[in-house]
């Protein structure tokens, strides 16, 4: 039975997902720059703005984790699963995540950030 509250678990998971979102967006930015798109700048600016928003959110997540004495570390990765160690207020819990679930969640977050940025 986990001792981690749902809100705290969500924050720990964001500490996993948001850096991955940044990695994907950074690679996409490089792909845009190397592409044959005629007007690259609007796409680059859009992705850069989304990256700034993700970085701000990641900063807030890290601040929250520090204040609540929590952290997350990747401990193992194979073809199907990635294991993370959640350090939570003096307790240690290992959590296995199915890699396609991680990919889907990162994709969901990117879509959400794109939609937020497009409407603001």
Question: What order do the helices and strands come in, and which of them pair?
Answer:
Elements: H1 6-34, H2 41-67, E1 70-77, E2 81-88, E3 91-98, H3 99-119
Antiparallel strand pairs: 1-2, 2-3
Describe this structure in words.
This protein has helices spanning 6-34, 41-67, 99-119; strands spanning 70-77, 81-88, 91-98. α2 crosses α3. By secondary structure, the chain is an alpha+beta fold. A hairpin with a 2-residue loop joins β2 and β3 (91-98). It has one domain. It is built from 3 helices and 3 strands. It has a 3-stranded antiparallel β-sheet with strand order 1-2-3. The mean pLDDT is 94.
In brief:
The protein is elongated. With 120 residues, it is α+β, with helices and mostly antiparallel strands. It is 64% helix and 20% strand.
Number of strands: 3
Low-pLDDT residue intervals, each spanning 5 or more residues:
none
Q: Return the average pLDDT rounded to an integer.
A: 94
- Main beta-sheet annotation: 3 strands, antiparallel
How many DSSP helices? Answer: 3
Order of helices and strands: HHEEEH
Main-sheet strand order equals 1-2-3
> What percent of residues are in strands?
15-25%
The whole-angstrom Rg is 16 Å
DSSP helix fraction: 55-70%
Going by helix content, strand content and strand pairing, the class is alpha+beta
Distance between the termini: 41 Å
Rough shape? elongated
Give the total of domains.
Answer: 1
